[in-house]
Amino acid sequence: SDGDYWVRFSFRELNAICYHDASQSLDTIYSIDTTRTDVQTQKGIRVGQTRAQVEKTYPDARNRPFWGYTGDYLWWSRNESAMGASIVFWFDDDRVVKIELVHYFK
Q1: Alpha carbon distances (Å) from 98 to 9, 44, 74, 77, 95
Q2: What radius of gyration do the chain's Cα atoms show?
Q3: What percent of the chain has pLDDT over 90?
């Protein structure tokens, strides 16, 4: 609606994309991503690890399309629809180069 906008915040290879709802004067985090090697998922995956390590740690990670994303990635969510929170693991040469936590609005 009028006055709503997207904003990106960045600090030391840690990025957040937020949606600002002007009617409520409220910012909601849409995604957080990082290329830092000292940040890990709850299950211990971090940038630099292999695709095989991701697949072993997240056996339900999917390699099918995810919300129009393109590139080399696997995504994991607690549900098939990917509504709510999901983790996207981005790869180059079968190594994780970026981890993204995405929340699609319900």
Answers
A1: 16, 14, 11, 17, 9
A2: 15
A3: 72
